[in-house]
Amino acid sequence: MTTSKKTTQRQGFKTNEYIVYPAHGVGQILAIEEQEVAGAKLELFVINFVKDKMTLRVPTAKIASVGMRKLAEPALVKKALETLKGRARIKRTMWSRRAQEYEAKINSGDIVAIAEVVRDLYRSETQPEQSYSERQLYEAALDRLSREISAVQHITETEAVKEIEAALAKGPRRGPAKAGDEAADVEEEAA
Q1: What Cα–Cα distance (Å) separates residue 114 from each residue in 80, 92, 104, 143?
Q2: Who's near 101: CB < 8 A, 6+ residues apart?
Q3: Angle at the Cα of 140 from the Cα atoms of 138 and 142, rounded to 5 degrees
Q4: What secondary structure does DSSP assign to 68-117, as a single string?
Q5: Residues 6 or more apart from 76 whose CB is under 8 A from it?
Q6: Which among 98, 78, 81 is positioned nearest to 89, based on CA atoms?
Q7: In 35-52, which positions are buried (b, 16+ CB within 10 angstroms) versus exposed (e)?
Q8: For the chain, how far is it from start to end, CA to CA, in angstroms?
Q9: Most CB contacts within 10 A, which of 25, 64, 99, 127?
Q10: Burial of 66 (0-12, 13-18, 19+ CB in 10 A)
């Protein structure tokens, strides 16, 4: 295999670089190694996800199809943080359908889509409790978002979470729910 072909397959990814793997979030390329699989030589990225204590080997030729990408540019991170300040858009569909959509956004690897999930599922102290499944999705989205922001801005995840929460606090409807909002829907269902 020629060097230029290898470089094309690697799409500019290098050892020690932080990347985003949609299904797992931020990881670091530890090495690029060759393995023989079923008689064919295969070039693999060895990606470590420290937080998940997991190492993944991804064929360099498959990175486009799995959606692996470089960390978001600072401008895109800014857009994601701006998204958090927007009004939550909660569809009036069944929770199971919404949960699937949120899960798909989290696993898309798209930082702005992940920010939308954080925004839509965020609850301030004054708002009603979340269900267990809402909390799980919120935590997953917050984790993905904070890990990428911390990697891009070279800050700790705790600092990234504080930055996210500060952006959320600037959004509308962060006070107590107004009569006629969600409460009306709950009463109808209970009746």
Answers
A1: 8, 20, 9, 10
A2: 91
A3: 65
A4: -EEPPPHHHHHHHHHHHTS-----SS-HHHHHHHHHHHHHH--HHHHHHH
A5: 111, 112
A6: 98
A7: eeeeeeeebbbbbebeee
A8: 69
A9: 25
A10: middle
28 - beta bridge partners?
A: 18, 48
131's tokens = 């269900």
Residue 110 tokens read as: 């798209």
Q: Which position has the token pair 């952006």?
A: 167
- Report how far residue 58's alpha carbon sits from residue 164's, in angstroms, rounded to the nearest whole number: 31
Tokens in use for 43? 């070039």
Residue labelled with tokens 């793997």:
21
pTM of the model: 0.81
Domains annotated on the chain, with CATH: 7-70 (2.40.10.170), 74-173 (1.20.58.1290)
**How long is the chain?**
191
